[in-house]
Amino acid sequence: MTGFVSFVGSGPGDPELLTLKAVDRLQQADAVLFDDLSSGPILSHAREEADLVGVGKRAGRPSPKQDHVSRLLVEYAQTGARVVRLKSGDGGMFGRLEEELVALRDAGIGYEIIPGIPSACAAAAAAGIPLTRRLTARRVQFVTGHDVSGKLPEDLNLTALADPMATTVVFMGKRTFPLLVEALLAKGLPLDTPALLAESVSTPDQALHRTTMGDLSKKLTAEIGAAPALILYGPLADE
Prior knowledge:
The chain is an alpha/beta fold.
């Protein structure tokens, strides 16, 4: 008997931001494979009998390989289990979702995708700002700050990322942000462009630091810190 996998977006970390469908799947699951940022209070919605398996990846820490995570999903489902793959934010946004979907399709295992509140939306809400603005920010762009090696990706569209009329959100970018700023300056983005560093969004450890691109680059050059973070910059981050 083949089981079923529910890919559940857990949102940014606050359990009250889970969707009703996410809670329902957690309460029915025989096994929950969860990211680091989806642990803690969110897992209280899982059944007491469920297997809880941490498979999260964090920069600078020992982490399971992606093929191992995909193999675990297949092996649990092949026992007939109802499996929840719990991903932080929305699983389809820099969440390595595609590799896991391919593994399930190859194994003939059914699945569903339940979206979660993206951390970028939660960060903007916490800061009390919109991601878009009529006339001055008609476009929002999301970008990852590192590639598989942990370095700044070499194929970024720097012209687009230096657009002063767009709100840009950088995921997983604290380590590489000074290099990104240097590249964006060469494309004409001013050093005084407003920026927002949003750490541990929607959790008790949340910290919001409003600054500029230049000052944030200096700050992250001196100290990165261990807290998960997003960086927003553009015409919205100064309010």
